[in-house]
Write a structure and sequence with these properties.
The protein is mostly helical and 457 residues long. It has a single domain, classed as Hydantoin permease (Orthogonal Bundle), CATH 1.10.4160. Helix 8 packs antiparallel against helix 16. The radius of gyration is 21 Å and the shape is globular.
Length: 457
């Protein structure tokens, strides 16, 4: 009870669902998932992705939530106490430390990218891209990236937005934020879907995403699905463990996490159905444009369509809200630890970690201008690419795999069953088999493939 009083708990199971969904829903759902789906076999890729969500994402997310609720503390202190309770090495606390560090590193560059989206909200609203060509929008984007002072300004605004929520605490800050942000995000997404259906080429967009093109589904595509299923649910970075520590004790973990996974996947699919009809309405645009799809192709499309200024503005508001809901979960694990272990107030903890993340974000800002040259590269890539690859390709999969191994092999079965008491015996045994054998094996496979790919390239 004392642990619960320190931070509080979510007001309801649905608040946890909204918070966890907010953590999971981000730029990856709204840009990356539609793109990789279309490029890797459409409906065939979606089937593989859903299978991966079922056998990797959901079991590990359940494990991370269970560990968090069992420990009722920050990920660092939770893993320390659970390791002692299990009678095993305290080295397992590394899961918590790695999650906190990964969250801060991801927040550092996430804030910069989200700053671009904030900039575009005002640019589109001002009519900057009305009847603009691809070259015009691309020039605007390149000018933004070259102006380090403007990027720092938007980076700072987004970081302050994030800190303002987390400072408020679990109930008044995080809880209130997700209860407002997530319904607004869902409504905006549905509005954009309706716009795509009425003004865009919905048939072409639907076919691009969902035609079963098995000839385009390669083993590389299967591994892409495996990796994205893992990363899209925010696993291995401490966020879900921290959120799980605030979860009401009577909430069933299995049903709750399945709901989160369903909402996260639904957002990704609806985003694709909203984005690609708009892209296909302009035959000159390339749907497989990578990052340029978001910041170049879509502004061109909105600028040439009826109502494009209004719905283009709403689209980038949607992007900003998705990034915001994810960002608040990235800093919370570290804040919780400072409050628990170092007697920080939430205000001072946020200011300290926010300053660290903001300062690291300057490296990402400079990666697109002053530090773009090879003399500033780390292991052959820019500072931004290095931090991105370090977290996504190494820290998160290792963290998720260790969570599965600890929950499946080291935590006492009686303690696990206590936290999973709302699950049926059959569901519990199925989950335990997945988290002990299948999930960590497949994560190791993804990790091994990524390492091999980096070595040969």
């Amino acid at each position: 009870m004392e642990k619960r009083k320190m931070h509080g708990t979510w007001s309801s199971r649905w608040t946890f669902i909204l918070a966890a969904t907010g953590s999971a829903v981000g730029l990856g759902n709204i840009w990356k998932f539609p793109y990789i789906t279309g490029e890797n076999g459409g409906g065939a890729f979606v089937l593989v992705y859903l299978l991966c969500i079922a056998v990797i994402g959901i079991p590990i997310m359940m494990a991370e939530t269970m560990l968090g609720r069992s420990g009722r503390q920050s990920p660092i202190n939770t893993m320390r106490d659970l390791a002692v309770e299990a009678g095993t090495s305290r080295a397992w606390v590394a899961i918590g430390w790695m999650g906190v560090l990964a969250g801060l590193l991801i927040l550092s560059f996430y804030s910069v990218i989200a700053g671009w989206a904030l900039n575009y909200v005002f640019a589109i609203a001002d009519g900057t891209f009305v009847n603009a060509t691809g070259a015009t929008v691309e020039s605007y984007f390149e000018t933004l990236q070259a102006n380090k002072y403007e990027m720092i300004q938007w980076h700072s605004i987004f970081m302050l937005m994030t800190l303002a929520v987390v400072i408020g605490g679990v109930t008044k800050g995080l809880g209130n934020a997700v209860r407002i942000l997530m319904p607004v995000l869902f409504v905006l997404l549905l509005m954009l879907l309706g716009y795509g259906m009425s003004e865009g080429n919905f048939t072409a967009g639907f076919n691009f995403l969902f035609n079963f093109k098995f000839d385009l589904l390669t083993w590389d595509g299967v591994l892409v699905a495996l990796g994205h299923a893992f990363f899209t649910l925010s696993l291995g970075m401490g966020a879900i463990m921290a959120y799980g520590s605030y979860m009401p004790g009577d909430a069933p973990i299995g049903k709750t996490i399945i709901t989160v996974a369903f909402l996260d996947t639904a957002v990704a699919l609806v985003a694709g159905l909203a984005i690609f009809p708009v892209v296909f309405a302009n035959e000159a645009l390339e749907p497989g444009a990578g990052p340029g799809l978001l910041f170049v192709s879509l502004p061109v499309a909105f600028g040439s369509m009826s109502g494009g200024v209004v719905f283009g503005t709403l689209f980038f508001v949607l992007i900003s809200l998705a990034a915001w809901s994810s960002a608040i979960s990235l800093i919370e694990p570290g804040v919780a630890w400072l409050v628990e272990s170092k007697n920080f107030s939430r205000l001072s903890a946020n200011l300290l970690l926010g300053t660290i993340a903001w300062t690291l974000g300057l490296g990402t800002v400079l990666s697109f201008n002053d530090w773009a040259g090879e003399e500033y590269h780390i292991l052959g890539v820019t500072f931004f690419d290095f931090v991105d690859k370090l977290t996504a390709n190494f820290m998160l999969p290792i963290g998720g795999m260790l969570i599965a191994i600890f929950a499946g092999w080291f935590m006492k079965k009686s303690h696990v069953r206590r936290e999973m008491s709302h699950e049926s015996p059959e569901m519990f045994e199925l989950w335990r088999a997945l988290v002990r054998y299948i999930s960590p094996t497949l994560v190791a496979l993804v990790f091994g493939f990524l390492v091999w790919d980096m070595l040969i390239n």
